[in-house]
Amino acid sequence: MSTAMQAQWQFPGGLHLDAHKLDAPIRDARLPTQLIVPVSQHIGQPAKVMVEIGQRVLGGQMLAAAEGYVSTPVHAATSGRVVAIEDRPVPHPSGLAATCVVIETDSLDEQVPADPADGFALDATDLRNRVRQAGVVGLGGAAFPSFIKLNPGSNVVETLVLNGAECEPYISCDQALMAAQPDAILQGARLLLHALGAQHCLFGVEDNKPEAIAALQAAADALGDERIRIVTVPTRYPQGGEKQLIQTLTGREVPSHGLPLDIGIVCHNPGTALAVWKAVMQGRALTQRVVTITGPGVAEPCNLRVHIGTPVSELLEQAGGLIDPDARLIMGGPMMGFALASAQVPIIKATNCILALRPEDLRPDTPAMPCIRCGACADVCPAGLLPQQLYWHAKAQEFDKTQDYKLFDCIECGCCAQVCPSHIPLVQYYRHAKTEIWADERARRKADVARQRHETRLARLEREEAEKKAAREAKKAALRARAEQQAAQEAQPGAAAQTDKPADDPVAAAIARAKAKGQAGKSESRPPADDESAS
Amino acid sequence: MNAPLSSPHLPVRPTVAGLMRRVLIAMIPGTAAMVICFGIGVLVNLLVALLAALATEAVLLRLRQRPLQPFITDWTAVLTAALFALALPPLAPWWLTALGAAIAIALGKQLYGGLGQNPFNPAMVGYVVVLISFPTELTYWTQQPVGIGASLQAQFGAAGPALLDGLTGATPLDALRSGLAQEQLVDEAIGGLAGRWGWAWINGGFLLGGLYLVVKRDISWRIPLAVLAGMGLTALLFWLIDSDRYASPWFHWSSGAAMLGAFFIATDPVSGATTPRGKLIFGAGIGVLVYVIRSWGGYPDGMAFAVLLMNLTVPLLDAHTQPRVYGR
Fold first, then answer.
1. CB spacing of A369 vs B74 below 8 angstroms
2. Neighbours of A530 (CB within 10 A)
3. What are the residue ranges spanned by the domains of chain B?
């Protein structure tokens, strides 16, 4: 058996954190009594509800269909009856409620018939469609629709990066999955390579997961696919940041404000690779995922295969319950996760970990000391920023200066805040500054539109005034012409006798009037071409 | 702005007080060497400066209507006092020590807004004020350990000029300076000087403690390295040109406040440069300036002036030495 490669490069900065990783196999969570399935589980448009209250649904049945491009369907994880379609609290940093399909489950766990296919015989478009219809999104935490990342457009993808770093403390769902199902994950990787037309797959795993690395390497040896390489990367937070892992594996940097695709790389999570494999080869929608229930606040930390939509409270029970009722529940890891408002929110596709931290495990609520400019923050910043300068300017509300110091290159990993001897909540200042800048930009855009509209209106009014004036003058000119004509006739009695004749002819008079009117009216009714385009 | 609901959630281990304590601990070897070489006066200076600094800190915090806690126990005033006291000659009179420490805290730190706000190194502000105001007292260095009784007599004003003359003596930097001024060669000026090795031991002690801080990552390696390189390379250049009239890099590294300055004074985070390249330039500037002042300036040693002058450049250095951001 060959051994996994070592990464040759490293990213700057970063931290060594106590891992607190759980070395536990995955067990199946109990069938939930209730499923709460938010129709919006990631950025982009919410899916459109396809079921009605009272309807019985089967496991794998679509509850809401994709609407718009950045949108994926959501499915029922098990069979039951739809009891409500209403706003429920969802796991989101804002703590707000959003539309959910609520299902009382029966214990039958009936599933819709699977629709398997040979993914390697499908072309990239069909493959993507299957991935999309199965509701597959990135399972690393951001839950971005996977089919979009499988659509490189005109870009050439050289390398698929599988991100098995799992660098946040406490989280161990990927670790457990890689140890349990390495073959299926690697098959999923081959499907991803096929869909992307990529030549290489670099599978990065942090070196504190020897079992996962050994399992993957054995599976890779058995598979014998030269394109796939398992690479051991140093355990260093935030190694699992997409940009950081790409740097560690390839020595290359994703351009600021760019995508890995810009340098021919696409990055997926191993759980996503498995979900893609299941979606295509087994024809199964994404209705389950592995979630780590852990932390000093729970009695029996565990890795559970969970039905998406299961309320967090049901999983806590299966982890032996909370030891401390005051424990804070965090979705995600301790460095970048967010606090849950209650245990009634459901597990969504993005949920990799439910972490229960007792008050004594948390950052104490003591006031920060002044910054002593020690620069420890800059030493650990993986983005190469100067967190201290960002802090000064954010605090002083000098938001343009924060952009001079590249605020938007901050990935909010929290390393700076974790080493600050003055305990300044640095990331909060950056989030605040970003929000303010976004609000400013929105306001400015709005003002721009309003100003443009106002200017267009003024221009239109001016033009209309000018046209009216022109019409009036044309009319005046026509009248003057007629008056002159009449005067000329009166001056020449002989001629007048002649002209009297046609004056007696009502038809000829009408024609003359219409002609004069037509000339004046012409310019009035004709709208100038640019007016149409402006309005 | 402390809403502890947002990430990161973990407790933070390093503290300002802890950092300051470790720096103080790292000063023990060098301080011990000073006590061995000069006697109890060094400890008296430390004690007097400490009391004066803490008292001033408390009074100024009160006047500024700021809470005493956590500032009075953050150890920053203690560190300022210690750096100031260690820069003083061992027989400095107590009132001078107290005055300088009070000025360091009041003018150097609190009047700028307290912790984190001072543009200049407070200990060096205090030192420069007493150096300029009381030049005679600032020459009360000794060449061998002074007994407890004599030291206390000298420091608390009970010693006459005759006793003081008997106790005090030139430091190697003084000797070099006056020797060269009298057209002596370097070897003649400092050759057989008593206390020459004492200063080497003292600098060795501060080097040891400083390396400990570097290894523990409590201070950046960049500033000390740049100070010593700036000083050493400039010294090397002139020494190679004329070793009779310019002392060796080794002499400069092992004399005066070289190591104390490089590892403990120049690394004051508040008043120093913060970017990686900025730290290198800041340190190198201090090293070169120390050499320039020692060789051609009006004072035998130049650490305090060099640090304060480079403090002036920090805003400029920081603004123009931003590191390259990922992906740009």
1. yes
2. 11
3. 15-169
- Which among A256, A361, A428 has the least Cβ separation from residue B325? A256
Contact at CB, A425 and B74, closer than 8 angstroms: no
What is the token pair recorded at B94?
A: 């107590």
Residue A534 pLDDT? 41
User: If you count them, how many residues does chain B have?
Assistant: 328
- So where are chain A's domains? 5-331, 369-535
B16: nearest CB among A372, A375, A388: A372
pLDDT (tens digit, 9 = 90+) per residue, A435-472? 999 999 999 999 999 999 999 999 999 999 999 999 99
Transcribe A202-224 into DSSP letters. EEEEETT-HHHHHHHHHHHHHHT
Q: Provide the pairing of β-strand A159-164 with A200-206.
A: parallel
* Alpha carbon of B12: minimum distance to chain A alpha carbons (Å): 5
Vertex A384 angle, CA A381 and A390, to 5°:
75
pLDDT band for A489, please (50, 70, 90 cuts).
confident
Span A470-489, mean pLDDT?
90
B contact residues 171-230, partner A, Cβ 8 Å cutoff? 217, 220
The two three-digit tokens of residue A42, written as one number: 């990631």
Beta strands in chain B (DSSP E): none
Task: Inspect the interface and report whether the beta carbons of A379 and B220 lie closer than 8 Å.
Answer: yes
Q: Which helix (H) or strand (E) holds A98?
A: strand A97-105
Nearest in space to A160 (alpha carbons), one of A192, A129, A132, A127: A192
With contact defined as beta carbons under 8 Å apart, do A20 and A50 qualify?
no
Q: Nearest Cβ partner of B9 from A253, A330, A374?
A: A330
**Quick one: pLDDT at residue A93?**
85
Q: Which residues of B touch A398 (CB under 8 A)?
A: none
ipTM of the complex: 0.91
In this predicted model, what pLDDT tens digit does every residue of A54-92 receive, in sequence order?
Answer: 999 999 999 999 998 999 999 999 999 999 999 999 998
Interface touch B5/A255, C-beta < 8 Å? no
Which pLDDT band, with edges at 50, 70 and 90, does B189 fall under?
confident
Query: Which has the minimum average pLDDT: B110-119, B165-174, B215-224?
Result: B165-174
pTM to 2 decimal places: 0.85
Mean pLDDT across B168-178: 87
Q: What is the mean pLDDT of residues B58-78?
A: 94
Packing angle, helices B94-106 and B122-133, rounded to 10: 140
List of chain A residues whose C-beta atoms are within 8 Å of the C-beta of residue B318: 389
Q: In what order do the strands lie in the sheet with A74-75?
A: A48-49, A62-65, A74-75
Nearest Cβ partner for A406 among B16, B114, B325 = B325
Cβ distance A362 to B269 less than 8 Å, yes or no, reads no
Q: What is the pLDDT of residues B213-247, one digit of tens each?
A: 999 999 999 999 999 999 999 999 999 999 999 99
State in words which class domain A369-535 has: mainly alpha
How many alpha carbons fall within 13 Å on the CB side of residue B115?
Answer: 28
Q: Residue B6 and residue A379: Cβ atoms within 8 Å?
A: no
Partner residue facing B16 (CB), from A334, A412, A422: A422
pLDDT at B183: 85
Q: Do B6 and A427 touch (CB under 8 A)?
A: yes
Helices within B161-302 (DSSP H only): 161-167, 172-181, 186-190, 196-215, 222-241, 249-253, 258-260, 276-296
Pinpoint the alpha helices (H) of A268-373: 270-277, 312-318
The CATH code that applies to domain A5-331 is: 3.40.50.11540
